[in-house]
Write a structure and sequence with these properties.
The complex is a heterodimer of chains A (113) and B (111). Chain A is globular and about 35 Å long. Chain A is mostly beta strands and 113 residues long. The model of chain A has no long low-confidence stretch (mean pLDDT 94). In chain A, 0% of the residues lie in helices and 55% in strands. With 111 residues, chain B is mostly beta strands. Chain B is globular and about 45 Å long. The relative contact order of chain B is 0.33. Classes of the chains: A mainly beta (113), B mainly beta (111). The interface between A and B is medium-sized, with 24 and 20 residues.
Chain lengths: 113, 111
């Protein structure tokens, strides 16, 4: 298996623009997690899905953030409108059972200028 | 505020030396995991410990879960430059599927 695949690897956008991050989890994994990593706050869980259904989105910082999982092999994280403080590395992870033994993608480094 | 406190924040040692990284919390976890993250990559799972007092060994790495399941340590024997990276601990609760991560310990092993 190719592992968790995220795209793009790097994204630079201007403040106010819409940004969409994409994730393909490992086939057969029922759980998908979106994390954000910054120097100040470390790794934070934004939202997670179980069988394509959002279970807990309490980590989503604002209404500007939204996430979808239309099928078992694809998820998106959208920021609209983007702000400079959204600059971070966004990780997608998937696991077979719960948070244990989660496999992370390589991340998307987002820079909002 | 981090639920999991890791120490030290930075550690720089010479190849061949030993090192220990600590992960402490006031919370009881159902399981605790250690990850290593290299620059530009996502965290990679090293081990999961679930039983209080449990000790797991992975080659030169030894992981221990505290008896009360509130703390853990990672010990590396005869460190090598390939051990360089950010070491993260993460705890999970039995009634929740969230992982709480520590801030990490940046380990640098000099050749």
């Amino acid at each position: 298996d190719a592992g968790v695949i995220q795209s793009p690897r790097h994204e630079v956008t201007e403040m106010g623009q819409e940004v969409t991050l994409r994730c393909k989890p490992i086939s057969g994994h029922d759980y998908l997690f979106w994390y954000r990593q910054t120097m100040m706050r470390g790794l934070e869980l934004l939202i997670y899905f179980n069988n394509n259904v959002p279970i807990d989105d309490s980590g989503m910082p604002e209404d500007r953030f939204s996430a979808k999982m239309p099928n078992a092999s694809f998820s998106t994280l959208k920021i609209q409108p983007s702000e400079p403080r959204d600059s971070a590395v966004y990780f997608c992870a998937s696991s077979l059972v719960g948070p244990d033994e989660a496999f992370f993608g390589q991340g998307t480094r987002l820079t909002v200028v | 505020t981090q639920l999991l406190e890791q120490s030290p924040q930075f550690l720089s040692i010479q190849e061949g030396e030993n090192l220990t990284v600590y992960c402490n919390s006031s919370s009881v976890f159902s399981s605790l995991q250690w990850y290593r993250q290299e620059p530009g990559e996502g965290p990679v799972l090293l081990v999961t410990v679930v039983t209080g007092g449990e000790v797991k060994k992975l080659k030169r790495l030894t992981f221990q879960f505290g008896d009360a399941r509130k703390d853990s340590s990672l010990h590396i024997t005869a460190a090598q430059p390939g051990d360089t990276g950010l070491y993260l601990c993460a705890g999970a609760y039995s009634n929740d599927y969230k992982l709480s991560f520590g801030a990490g310990t940046t380990v640098t092993v000099r050749a």
